[in-house]
Amino acid sequence: MQYNLARIHEFIAGIIPDKECIVTAQERFTWEQVTERTRRLADVLRGAGLGCHEERGGLENWQSGQDHVALYLYNGNEYLEGMLGSYKARCAPFNVNYRYVEEELLYLFDNADARVVVYHAAFAPTLAKIRDKLDGVKLWLQVADASGNALLPGALDYEEALARATPAPMPDDVSHDDLYILYTGGTTGMPKGVLWRQEDIFKAALAAQGVPADEDELRQRIEAIGGNIRSLPAPPFMHGAAHWVAFNMWHVGGTVVVQSDVERLDPDDVWSTVEREKLNTITIVGDAFARPLIDQLRKKEYDLSSLGLVTSGGAIFTAALKQELLELVPQIKIMDALGSSETGAQGVHFSTADTGGKTGDFDLAAGNVVLKSDLSALIDPSSEDVGWLARTGYVPLGYYKDAEKTAKTFPVVEGVRYSVPGDRAAWCPDGNMHLLGRDSVTINSGGEKIFAEEVELALKSHPAVYDTVVCGTPSERWGSQVTAIVQLREGEQPSEAELKEAAGNHIAGYKLPKVFVFVEEVLRAPSGKADYRWAKQTAAEALGIEV
Q1: 118, 126, 163, 271: which is deepest, by most CB within 10 A?
Q2: Which residues contact 249 (CB under 8 A, 6 or more apart)?
């Protein structure tokens, strides 16, 4: 079996052609229709001379021989079609954060060597300001939307371009070596393009029920459950976890549903979509999604009887909020999914009404280990030492155009190549792994290393805290002081002492915030992830200092 994402999708489409593949608020597409539309998109790309120009075997790990397609889109069928259509043309699509300003977009398009930009009309005015600096872009495909913005000069209307194209079958040379590219969010630095072979990303993150040994095994799965699973990935598809869920659902013959409001999180819209479409699973991003969704359930009743699984990844989902959700929707399982752009899926943790909500400890998948801090060897599971969470086996090739960062993030330890993206972890006595947090946002205060996520989790134990992000700010005494940017629940006014007391029940005293900055809203990425650059800047402005 060749583990190419486009080939797998077409294989499944041949088994369940009439089942629903993508459902949006406006349209419903069967597997057969998605196959035809993505073949047409591939024809558009190939007609512009785009595709693969050098095979994988002749390239270094940080190089690409394919043309790259920027997906500058809100959630919708066009996003997922953009991925599949690109793969069928042997191009490599990549994700664009639609909140980026002009300077950030210029950096991303240049760094990624974008040859095609597929974008919603809402973003046309922004692109118009920078397109004269994007000489490398050969094709602009504009997706019509409610903005009503006119086509950019020289751009093609997405639907008109598909209508004129030919739905020719994929070429025979479409390969499992073709690239899957995922740009990191850049919340602590500039975004980096992670290069995966498609076979590796499939085996590392996109095979929901394990990797099928051959087409017969995959066919049996699809015939058994195809068309019976319906899922809503609520975060933006430009966040890896969201389109990973979409592909995982597809790979069991499931239906991917998109909510009506794709520009912001509308809790009523999400729950109404679950009710209307009889969804079995939804995906959220930690507390940033869970808190407003739970608040909505206390305002209005919905028929959620079809819902069996809520998955969360990319940010903290605190135990207290899990418990609230389990009390409101008692039949569900909550699955914390651990992973990153550089590792794929690494571990899971389940919470149910019987077990109660828990946070922080994960059952690791095969190939995941904890390496010593100096990367000299593995840490034995019986040890309590803190090290680096790492994965071996199916891991990325490297970072696009960056040999140095590739070598640093994917080191060879005792003859084995690992992915070590920067998460600190330690083994638990029960054999599970305890995640401490990303090293890049660790605060060195008074000689002690303090993990920002650990402090955030402790502060959220106070019921008045709606959201919080923790960072370090300069301090003459401590070098760097723990600074908490806090959004309180409406009508609540706890003192700093009360917040410290609540957090002190979960973490040591030296980890408690030295400074609090209260804000009306904690700004997060559209994915729900913490924006630590924003946090540092907000703290600096409030404290009148430079960072």
Answers
A1: 118
A2: 208, 229, 231, 255, 256, 281
